[in-house]
Task: structure prediction
Amino acid sequence: MKNQTRQKHLSHSDFQSLSQSIYSELSGDESLALTLSAEDSKFYRFNESRLRQATELTQIGLQLHLQKNRRQIKVSIFLGVSSEENKEHVLKILNQMRADINELPEDPYFVAHQNYGVSSQISEPIETSIATLEKICTEQLKGLDLAGLYCEGPLTLGMSNSVGLDHWFESAPFFFDYSLFHGFKAVKGGYAGAEFVDHKFSEKLAENQIFLERLKKPSMKIAPGKYRTYLAPAAANELIGMLAWGGFSYAALQRGQSSLGKIFKNEAKLSPLLTIEENFENGLVPRFNDLGELSPEKMVLIEKGVGVNLLTSSRSSVEYKVKSNGASMSESFRSPKVLAGTLETKDILKELHTGLYLSNLHYLNYSDMPGGRVTGMTRYACFWVENGEIIAPIEDLRFDESLYHCLGAGLIALTKETEHFPETSTYFSRRVGTSECPGFLIDQFTFTL
Amino acid sequence: MSRQWIGLFQELKKECDWLSFRFLNEDSKAYSTRDGKVEEARQVFDRGVMMEVVVDGTLVYAATSDLSEAGLRACFKRGAMRAKQLSPLKLTHFNPKSRGLYQAQKANLGEKKLEQLTTSEIVQHQIKVGELLKKGPHVLSSQLTTILLSTETLYLTSDGAEIHQETAMTLQDMRVTGQKKATIQTRSDHGYMARSKQGGAEGINTDFLGMRADTLIRELNEMLDAPDCPTGKLDLLLSPDQMMLQIHESIGHPLEIDRILGDERNYAGWSFVKKEDFGKLQYGSPLMNVSFDPDLKGEIASYAYDDSGTEAQKTYLIQEGKLLAGLGGSESQERSGLAGVSNFRAQSWNRAPIDRMANLNLEPGSSSLDEMIAQTERGIYMQTNRSWSIDDFRNKFQFGCEYARLIEDGKLTSVVKNPNYRGTTVAYWNALKAVGDPSTFEVYGTPHCGKGEPNQVIRVGHASPACLFSQIEVFGGA
Ligand SMILES: [Zn+2]
Result:
């Protein structure tokens, strides 16, 4: 029951002709970049395995980035599909920007638009039929209490500039991000990809239900203290996600806002088991950044515990006189990959022996950012394990631990199997992104509440 | 705005069981400078429409940025088709009574128009203050941001509601980071974007920023020399710029009725508060009075009508410590049978409204700041949020502040760095032992409260006096 549906917003050639018609209006000292971010989305929100809110959205966003005499300004607007009206709208905004840009001082770390090349990546959208969703609700979720979000639809990122750059990325990923509940306890589930296949979703649900059964036992209250702890890939991925927040940014390091300062100043090392890359090899994330530069397919950030590369934007390269490496302006990773270890799935409980098995973590924050200390909560399927056997689910615990310990001397093993996590963030617009992470076995992980 | 579409609305409403249009125009202009140099000038002109299309008792939200007649018609058609298809899947039947019937025009654009502030005025001033900050000893970096915001909405419904609202807002942030030997600290002007307020250009007081810069530098240097916050149980005095976060995370979110009903269980989380707790639960000590107040002058989330067209009024959620009402709009009130407020709010035209905080305040008490310090034998006075984390049921929290001083024998003494504290919600609020008087009452806000699937951020305001809590677990940094 699949239909191929074209996007209802702008095609690559629509975008190219809009861009060219605007660039032809520029004067010699002006340069302009246009970034299109468009989506035709379905957002179906579920509670109690029923549809709570459904939103159908057509959103066509365009950013204009004007440069003139080493000054620059960015304006984001929203468009329709009529090329005449769009052109008129964009020209009107361009004229407003021309007035504003003259009020700004020269930018000391100015990076001029350049032609970083041409790229195009298109995956055909495959729409899931409403009949499939109906079948899920009436058959597959029968007797289950599910809350979550089903999201799908065409997604386009396009970028061009007046000096010849032209990137296009079109994809139509879907994700079903959900939780299954038994009373106040839940397991986290997720199914994502390009095409929704009923039986694959059924398999996911069956896997989730094995954990849900284990949550039906009464919860144990665990006293605060230090425990040997297994972070399943989703939990480990949350911890690694904290490093997007200044951890690998060259500028953040210079400005005292890095949580891995000691690593990149060579004052400390992380575990030799840990290698982290920015890795675009799976093709799920566009390699072009917000300037249109193509990032390398693969760059190692931490190699066997040693800091080897920081994400360095072209702006930082001008300011700090270092080489840039295709990082975005924010210098946070876009496609992180933590390399696998050697711990076999069948040996996880045996190696954990006695301690905590944590499937997910929640609401992480730095309790001391320059000190590299992170706090957060356990969430979803978390268990007390004794002698390699799951004893009972636990009441939620708060942890507060130094990254230098849990990713350093405290890191005992990484699993051989990794998991891929699609980006499910939908603030302002749907994001493309992915991360890959194994599970972590950690000794003496600190729980405080 | 968009009044040219009233004719089309009248036509399309006949083609479904019930219809609303919510047009939104929002202009934001953001200027940031770093270390006394321009960093970024960015503007957003957000335009679009959200339709609520009801067919067979099924409500579907349909939104588009294509504001041409063809765009609006296509959007309506998609919504109506989907409402019919999705009807068998729905959780609740749409009740038109959950939407208001008002015809109104409301505007709060402040005393001085935002347009009177020019780009160069803002940027040049920030550069000047940035240069001042840069000269501070041990300074690594500093950053200033100003955002000017204006929004305009028009809400039309099948039942004749026609509500036009306009609001102006100003938001500012200033922060400075310093390093002395291995110690790195950051001091900000009351926390990230905490100077978020409603009103016009009068909200930007340029002289004041310069004065604050001196204070930030002085306090930063105290922090760089300070020992870590001690570990142990101390009486905890919180300033309003930390109370803001304490109220937000441990009162606001758990009282959202859509959370209590389970809508957020897959993302933001559920709540320890249950339906049967209303009217019974002693949430905090008898000194605790919490209000939803959509009409406090200058507080950023003030409004007359929410996105269901329901009139917003000041409502006490907690009085003398007892839980009375929840943060739920008309739809949640109908689903839960609980008393609520008008807080059905969407981030923008592209999102469906959900239960949000708006202005959520702790009412002043009767203690002066000096009295609260004087009555404390062993305590700590913490200011300005820098870190926040709480579990998905909103029980176990840990919050960190920028700046703190110990209180010993009724007097403020030495500065300590990396102050953190933790607790569990109901026990914590029941440990509230003094509430500051109106002289300690301050109004802050944040543009960044995240919630919902699909995700939405929303602006919320929090006003509070300083408050004293008995015997709280505190500790320091790495
Ligand atoms: Zn929030």
Remarks:
- Chain B has a mean pLDDT of 97.
